[in-house]
Specification:
This protein is of the alpha/beta class and 452 residues long. The chain is built from 13 helices and 20 strands. The strands form 3 sheets. A 7-stranded mixed β-sheet has the order 6-5-4-3-2-1-20. The protein has a 7-stranded parallel β-sheet with strand order 15-14-13-16-12-17-18, sandwiched between helices. Zinc ion binds next to loops.
Length: 452
């Protein structure tokens, strides 16, 4: 018998954890951390402790208590007994935390299957942050592969999303094919990849489709540009004669490489150097090894400089910085240099780095290009704080963003073409709305099992 069980990503955007069983074969589709994980109990610096493994998560049912899944050391202080693994693999669609973030709790004996690009993002994240994804036997794939795991065959097909290396899946089970979209969009610069996935999905006449539905919402009225329109918007700001002698400040999703490429191209196009964070420079040194991504080398490319925030000694001493930050010290640009010749640079300042504005003191009217979802600035307290900073320094707020997710209308069209017998919506706050898009849409209940 083939069954599905949804342990995360149910009625919320992110945190996908979907269990697929075919006879004795049991695999997980993604093992993500939900954005709201524990938000009722943990906030700010009040966070689950790192040293207690799963104890602080189980206390509030933030992760499913499942036998044969977790690493022995993570279970140490909990009542769940460690047992030999009962799962054959974890399949990761892409490197966003809401799809991969809880992998660190999983038993290292359970193999992990993911795209070659995703693996690079995961390595970079482990090297430059506290995120621990754990030791696992990794099997990396590229589009078009066919991977046998027990009774099932998994075919990853690349899709376009706001991070490179994202995949959707056609999964052949003993009772027919299942489609899992991961996260995807059809309006992005690599729309042809998503098109390939949709075509392949339609071809197999699937029994079921597990689909993301981030933008299936009654009020999806947020700005949604294409990546090309974003690029044109950035170029417009660069070309504005009022800004010729001003700094250009920008912020974007740190791992959205399409966006980074656009800022880089715009900066080059108006004879500015792009000034990135050390973390971005480090990520680029990893990603340039993937020739499909066509990204600049932060060490060799003279158009790239690196902004180091002052730490410890306060005087940019090499020993102030982590080892992974040091390879780019030669490319350092200081606030003093940016102030001397602001028209020669385009600088990345993210939310937690807003304090740098106090040192930079940009001329009033300096553009601040906010190239992320407005969701953040609309809903959260941080949004108000961001607006206060922008207004305090008299910056010109420019909102330019292309979503990483397929629109409701385009998703309805994709479902129509794929013609699955059943649709299981995940990664959406409004699963019930899928009933208007498909006759047999099943908004999953968390933890409940569904036969195919
Ligand atoms: Zn994603």
């Amino acid at each position: 018998m083939v069954g599905l069980r949804f342990l995360g990503g149910v009625g919320e955007v992110g945190g996908n954890k979907i269990l697929l069983e075919d006879g004795d074969t049991r695999v997980w589709l993604d093992f993500g951390k939900s954005f709201t994980c524990g938000a009722d109990y943990y906030t700010g610096y009040l966070a689950p402790r790192g040293i207690t493994g799963l104890k602080d998560y189980f206390e509030f049912d933030l992760l499913p208590k499942v036998e044969g899944l977790y690493a022995e050391e993570m279970l140490g202080e909990t009542e769940l007994k460690y047992g030999e693994p009962k799962f054959d693999g974890i399949i990761i669609s892409h490197a966003h935390g809401d799809h991969v973030g809880h992998l660190g709790f999983v038993d290292p004996k359970i193999p992990v299957y993911t795209g070659a690009g995703t693996k690079l993002f995961m390595e970079a994240s482990e090297e430059t942050s506290q995120n621990r994804l754990g030791e696992h036997a990794y099997h990396t794939f590229r589009t078009g592969a066919r991977i046998s795991i027990g009774a099932i065959d998994v075919c990853p097909i690349h899709v376009d999303h706001s991070i490179p290396g994202a995949y959707g899946f056609v999964i052949y089970t003993s009772e027919g094919a299942i489609i899992y979209t991961g996260d995807m969009r059809t309006h992005g610069p690599k729309a042809d990849m998503t098109e390939e996935f949709i075509e392949a999905a339609a071809e197999v006449k699937p029994r079921a489709m597990i689909t993301e539905g981030t933008r299936v919402a009654p009020d999806d009225h947020r700005q949604n540009l294409s990546e090309q329109q974003v690029a044109a918007g950035i170029a417009r700001v660069c070309g504005d004669p009022h800004h010729k002698k001003r700094l250009i400040i920008y912020t974007h999703g740190p791992r959205d490489m399409d966006r980074l490429r656009n800022f880089y191209a715009a900066a080059t196009g108006c004879d500015r150097k792009i000034v990135v964070a050390p973390k971005t420079a480090h990520l680029l040194t990893k990603l340039i090894h993937d020739e499909h991504l066509d990204l600049p080398d932060p060490i060799k490319d003279d158009g790239i400089a690196v902004y180091y925030r002052r730490k410890k000694s306060g005087s940019y001493d090499e020993s102030d910085y982590f080892r992974w930050e040091r390879p780019f010290l030669d490319k350092m640009i200081t606030p003093a240099e940016l102030k001397r010749e602001p028209g020669a640079y385009m600088v990345n300042i993210d939310f937690t780095g807003l304090t740098e504005l106090i040192d930079l003191r940009p001329e009033r009217g300096t553009p601040f290009i906010y190239s992320m979802s407005e969701h953040f600035s609309e809903d959260e307290a941080e949004g108000t704080v961001l607006k206060n900073w922008i207004s305090h320094f008299g910056l010109e707020h420019v909102q330019l963003h292309a979503s990483g997710h397929i629109s409701r209308g385009e998703l309805a069209e994709a479902i129509e073409r794929i013609r699955p017998k059943k649709v299981f919506p995940v990664h959406t706050e409004h699963p019930e709305m899928f009933k208007r898009m498909h006759d047999n849409a099943v908004p999953p209940v968390k933890g409940k099992g569904y036969a195919l």
